Amino acid sequence: KTVAVTGASGYIASWLVKFLLEKGYTVKASVRDPSDPNKTQHLLELDGAKERLHLIKADLLEEGSFDALVDGCVGVFHTASPFFFETNNPQADLIDPALKGTLNVLASCAKTPSVKRVVLTSSAAAVAYNGKPLTPEVVVDETWWSSADFCRENQMWYVLSKTLAEEAAWKFAKEKGIDMVAINPALVIGPLLQPTLNTSSAAILDLINGAETFPNSIFAWINVQDVAYAHILAFENTSANGRYLTVDETVHYAEVVNILRELYPTLKLPEKCADDKPYAPTFNISSERAKSIGVEFTSLKQSIKETIESLKEKKLFK
Ligand code: NDP
Questions:
Q1: How many Å is the Cα radius of gyration of the chain?
Q2: Averaged pLDDT for residues 150-172
Q3: What is the ipTM of this complex?
Q4: Residue among 139, 140, 148 at smallest CA distance from 167
Q5: Tens digit of pLDDT for each residue in 13-38?
Q6: 162 is catalytic
Q7: Residue ranges of the NAD-dependent epimerase/dehydratase domain (predicted)?
Q8: Alpha-carbon distance 66 to 109, whole Å?
Q9: For the segment 197-247, what is each residue's pLDDT rounded down to a tens digit?
């Protein structure tokens, strides 16, 4: 069986490609620059890559760019989307590639009869941020949607990009009769396959790189291998439908620092919070739907350990 993965060189997608090859799939994988070894070498070295991995150049902003990628595929995993926070031009840097790119990929799928299901990598970012207070009694689930207005007011451009992209994807999929499932991961950590640092692994690296303080905020966390595998479960399980939040634990940065201290007592870690306000309250994110399709969750402690060991191995942290 042949499947397509967009943005294959990315952090999550690299694990997805690895697992798909291990499961015997033939994988057509899109990358922006097939000649850049930083983006392709780790993929070409995967078991099965020689026989069953095909790299194809495609860009989210080029119309029709994904036609050749999805041609002949039964499943399409659309993971490509810019993931960073700092930008002076959110429309061009984040929103256009996320939103137009998603519609571009789906348009290619809509005209390709071989495609039976699309798995969209959305985000918990598209779920949890709508101005409703996030407090310990709250359980965020897949019925929640982030609000574009709230994102704009608070200049949460990445969150906005993911929210607009997922909203538009559902609308388009419904109109065109595309069978789509969305995966909505929390902040993803765990081992890196690619040689370069990605945004979510940087959340851990920033804590161990001499920072004096840790942020006064709550994040939900998930292991990259669990997220990647969730995509495959969502594709293979014919009854899978709708959105799947994939979240292991939702904790304050203070707790992440505590775990780091326990695991690595000699590391220099931030001693205090970035502000003097009370700690932001924790809240809950449901992973019941994900568990119902067989997604399993690595503990946060194990994920943090795997992240640090991988950052060391890739020489991204000494
Ligand atoms: P990476 O930055 O590692 O991967 C992003 C991928 O998107 C890269 O392959 C990148 O290609 C590709 N991409 C970006 N812009 C374009 C473009 N214009 N045309 C083609 N490809 C493009 O991030 P992650 O693996 O972390 O993220 C993958 C997906 O998961 C994204 O959709 C992200 O929003 C989502 N996600 C990630 C979370 C996390 O914590 N990591 C949490 C929740 C959701 P190139 O390598 O050429 O830059």
A1: 19
A2: 98
A3: 0.99
A4: 148
A5: 999 999 999 999 999 999 999 999 99
A6: yes
A7: 3-240
A8: 8
A9: 999 999 999 999 999 999 999 999 999 999 999 999 999 999 999 999 999
Ligand 1 binding pocket mutation candidate from 79, 161, 198 (most atoms within 8 A of CB): 79
Q: What is the pTM of this model?
A: 0.98
For residue 44, pLDDT beyond 90: yes
pLDDT of residue 318: 80
User: Which of 162, 171, 291, 315 is an active site residue?
Assistant: 162
Report the amino acid identity of residue 169: A
Q: What is the largest CA-CA distance in the chain?
A: 57
Counting from 1 in the atom list of ligand 1, the atom nearest the Cα of 224 is 41
> Rounded to whole angstroms, what are the CA distances from 261 to 39, 209, 256, 270?
33, 14, 9, 10
Question: Using one digit for the tens of pLDDT, what is the confidence trace for 52-85?
Answer: 999 999 999 999 999 999 999 999 999 999 999 9
Q: Which of 6, 12, 96, 146 most suits a substitution to test ligand 1, by most atoms within 8 Å of the C-beta?
A: 12
